[in-house]
Each structure stands twice: as structure tokens, then as C-alpha cells.
Model the fold of this input.
Amino acid sequence: MDGNDVKSAGKCPVMHGSLTQTAATVTDWWPKTLNLDILHQHDKKTDPLGEAFDYREAVKELDFDALKADMKALLTESQDWWPADWGHYGGLMIRLAWHSAGSYRLADGRGGGGKGNIRFAPLNSWPDNGNLDKARRLLWPLKKKYGNKISWADLILLAGNMAYESMGLKTFGFSFGREDIWHPEKDTYWGSEREWLPPSDTRYSDVSKPDTMENPLAAVQMGLIYVNPEGVNGQPDPAKTALHVRETFARMAMNDEETAALTAGGHTVGKAHGNGDASTLGAEPEGADVENQGLGWMNPNLNGKATNAITSGIEGAWTAQPTKWDMGYFEMLFGHEWELTKSPAGANQWRPIDIKEEDMPVDPTDPTKRVMPMMTDADMAMKVDPIYRAICEKFMADPAYFDDCFGRAWFKLTHRDLGPRSRYIGPDAPQEDLIWQDPIPAGSTSYDVEAVKAKIAASGISNADLIATAWDSARTFRGSDLRGGANGARIRLAPQKDWEGNEPARLAAVLAKLEPIAAETGASIADVIVLGGNVALEAAIKAAGFDVAVPFTAGRGDATAEMTDADSFSVLEPLADGFRNWLKKDYAVSAEEMLLDRAQLMGLTAPEMTVLIGGMRVLGANYGGSKDGVFTDRVGALTTDFFVNLTDMANSWHPVEGGYELRDRKTGAVKFTASRVDLVFGSNSILRAYAEVYAQDDAGEKFVRDFVAAWTKVMNADRFDIA
Done:
């Protein structure tokens, strides 16, 4: 044993902090460092199924009927370790599906149930998701049995659908096809708070004005899916709560009728849990000890009785028959007057005045006992708010209409981020086109592509305008909820045609020349726009001295105004586009951070983002013809000049009003101007490493081929038919 062995004898062999999150990260040491992790958060290296596995093909081999039958059986097989309310897990599974899907937000399309993200932190340990770890564990036998033919994302949402069907609702339908992720979306912004359930004021400039909530957030507090069920900041006031319910659900893509239907339908079955002292519960899943095996909120007083469960702290059912789909929610809410009270766990809730014992629900464990029903502040909002009340009265007058409205709203909730109807899989996928699915008719593939390209080349449109128009059409794609993109050519429709970032006057002039070409050749306008970009790109490649074809697949369709929910599309408007060196205005967030956000939504990697920036600059595709970042005297040729001049130590960079200047070190002469987005590719150590690859003398052809691949990826991002 040498000296080092003697000194280390008996010590822990692990360097503490090196393998855990206790060590300071790069961004801890240098908070202003641009964090590129958001571009790497779904690295395929974490996928245990391997790159060859295609879930969307595997699920087609699933025995759908057998799985649904097994699911319905599971719902009524109460387990001693987590007993079911009234012997039925329906309410629990509905909450699991709802909270999985309910993290979706319209502003950036992130969240939602489409990836099974609720399995991971932070969502698996949000206070509002308490005890949903038990629901997922109850589903494990089905996941185990059907294996890789069913993803967790599909299984979780299917559980909610089957729960409703088992309790009497005819659902609108269900589609399979959601692929699981394999680690947390840790870089999704859920809010700046560093504690659970802080006052709502932290994410509002004025909490009395719900529309002042910070974008892109939708929930009122850190750790909640929607609103605080006890009232704004835990203070009961149904009228105020109604305003927050309206804003929150609108940010999750729901209108007033859908909101009222979901609230009523969600609370027609199941119950809330708060029958005991919440302080006795164990830590949440991420904070629990290893012997709990991923389960959290352990209840030492459960004693195998559903009655003793504690989750939200609110206690009781909303209806007299909580395992039956009926009109009981409305009968209870509007059939009684209500008074404020406290649950056994100390939570604010409402109870009916002078209710008869026979109108109460039975105890979830002991059917010989009747227990008091309850309403949350959000439920009372349905009665107090005049708009919600009118909608509820319409539902009460027409139960079939309520069933249909809820079924459609539930379907929207659970399918909002699955993409267009063409992606739906399974025998229960509905055939009706819904406006929120952004429908697009099929396009032609029978026209002469080369003839179209020739007409575009002879149109007199500049290559820079062709590149910019194709890019602007495609850049709206969001991988978060599979909306936007070039397919549909919605860039020619309101609201996109009028967006500042699309340079409306320039866009109108380009479309005025491209639309006749589409009409003459039988191609869709969507295809012609993309082909225009390809024509310009191929010319730029030749100008750089290379002969590389740009791939193209015909078949895009042209959407109409009637197929377009203009209000819903307004959230896709870019506020910044670093690829075209444009900011709508100055923001608290830096331009380079906004570039990362856009790149991640478009599904780009850091190398792809880098090569696109360098190419778009030398192509002269900047917004408004800006010269910032155009580090070349060969504008229009697809060269590596952006990277060569950025990394050339014969140059130096200097801040000036409105941006930066590149100057010759010896003479001081100004050679180029730049934005922060341009310079970050030289200042950030990771991005500089990528930039240096393309600045090398032997990088010319590699750069062209890499740019073409990244460009084609962007143009085809929404071509789910060829993915």
C-alpha cells in the first residue's frame, strides 16, 4: 500500500459533488453564460429503445381492444397498498390524465401529455400532482404486459379516457401515437419561483388583473396545473377566482364554454382528498428516500382506507354518485346554497346548507355512511360568474349538449399537442376535422417540379427574397405541439401575412409573383414558396463553387381562412428571429436567449443552429436588408465567410450604439457590423467550437452540405407524411 492508499484508507471512494447536483455548474459560476442545454434536452443517447425503434409503427401492432378491456378491469380492482375510492380508480386516473395534459400552454406549445413528461421532475413532484405517482404505479401491470407497443404517454391519457367510458360517458375518441421522452424537460421554463406555492403575486404585475401573468406561463402559482382551488392566493372569493380561471384556461387554449364543460365534467366523478393532517405526509417523490421506490407523499395514517387519503387538503366529492357520469354536478352546485368551511386538513372549501342525508355521497370506504359533499372556490366560480353561470344553465337544459361539449373539450385537452389529424393512430381516432387541429388539405404531387423551378428563376424575385419568404413560412413550426410550419402556406393568410416579422409589404410583393406560378403549374402555393427558397439556395451553392442539390418533396397543401383559427395562430408570431437578425423590440431576455428558444421549438440542434446562422447571413437574408452579421463581400454565395471573419484574429470587435463593429486591428478601419446574436458564436465557448469547424480552410463543401441538410429539416419539419 503506497502513501496515497494509506491516506485514503477508510474514506468514501466517491468525490462528493462530482456525480450529483450539489456541485456548482458552469452557469452557477458564470450566470451570464448562454446555456445551450435546451437544445440537447432530448439527446437520443438517453433513449433505451435505440434509434432503430419506431414507436409510431410499433403501436400499430398493439391489440387495442385487449388493452382497453384490461384497463377497464384494472379500474375496479382496488389494491390494498392504495385503495380505490368506492372501489373505482376512475377519478384518480382522470386526474392523472388531466394533470399530464393540463400542463400544456398555448403561448409556446410546451407542456402537455404528449411525451409522458409527468413521470419526471419537476412535474412528478409538483404539489398539485400529489399522489399521481400512485396512479402511474397502478398502471404498471399494463405497461409491463404490453411493453414497447404502448408508451407511457399514451397509456396515461388512455387511462383517463377509459375511466370516463367505464363510468358512463361516450367519449369523442382517442388516438395513440405519443412517443415517450426519457429524461426531464429540465430547461422548460415553469416560473422563476424557488419555492412551492408562493403567493400568486410573484408571476403577476398586478394579481387583480389576471392578464398581467408572466408569459408564457399559464398556471397561477409554481406547482399548480391551473388555479388555486381555495381561491386567489388561498383566499376564497369565487368572483375573483372566476377571472383567474378564465385567463388560465385561455392560456391553455380553452374558451369559456370549454372551460365550464371541463370544470363540470372533471368534477362530475371522483373526489378531493384531505381527511387528515397533511403535515404527517412524507416527502414528494423526488425528495423521498430510496426505500419508497419512487413513491412520495407517504401517508402513515392511510391504514388501507381510501377515506384516510390526503392529497390537496380539500376533502369530499362533488356529487352524490361520484363513480357515475350524470348531471349530478349541476344538481349539487345549483340545487343548494353554500357556505365557506374548512376541511379536516384545514383547507378552505364550500359545503351545502341544509342538504338532506340521502342526497349526500356515501363514504369512499364504508358504504353504510353518508358524508358531506363539497365545492372548491373554482366550482363556486361557475355559479357566481354570470358568463359561466349562463353556460352551465345551457348545459342543464340540454344534457346531451353538455355530454358533447365535454367530450370534445376533453378530447382537445388530451390531444392538443399530438399534432394534426393525419398523425392519429388507432380504431377510435375520430374522422372529423377540428379547427384547433389546424387542418390542411392534401396537396398535389403530379406537377412538373423542374418547370416550377424554372418559372420561379425567371420571375425576377431576388434570391434573398425567395430565401426569406421560404424561411418565414417554415420558421413558425413548433416541435412542442407540432403546430406551424410551411405546409398550408398560412403565411399568405391572416394573421401571418400582417406580422411585422414577415415584412408584409415585401411578402405581398413576393406572393403576387409566386401565386400565379402555382395556379399555372398545379402546384400548391406552399410547395412553390419552399421551392422558391430551394431555387435561390441552389444558385447560392453554385456561386460558392459547389454542385449540391437541395432535396424537395412535393405534396404540401394550401389551407384556407376557414381552416384557420386566426386567434389561435396569433401565439405563433415570432417576436424575434436570430436567423434573420431581427428583434421586434428590446426585451428583458437577451437576443441570443431568444434565438435558443426559437431553435429549440424548431427542433434544431446547436450545430444545426450554428450552420443556419452562418448561411443565412452570407445569403443576405437579414430582416429589412440589414448588414449586421453579413461578414462577406460575396453576398449571395453560400460560403464560410461568416465563420472565417468572425474567428479571424486580424479583426477586433467594438461595441457601438445599436450593435458592434468589426475593425481591422492594424488600421482601425470598420469592415462589418454585428448584433449580439452574431457575436455569441465567437464568444460562447461551445458555439465557437462549432464555428471553428466551419472556419477551417477545408470546410467549404461540408458547410454547404450541412446547411442544405439543416435547411431541408426546417422546410420539412411539418411534413409528418414523410417523416
Observations:
- The mean pLDDT is 95.
- Residues 525-543 form the longest helix (19 residues).
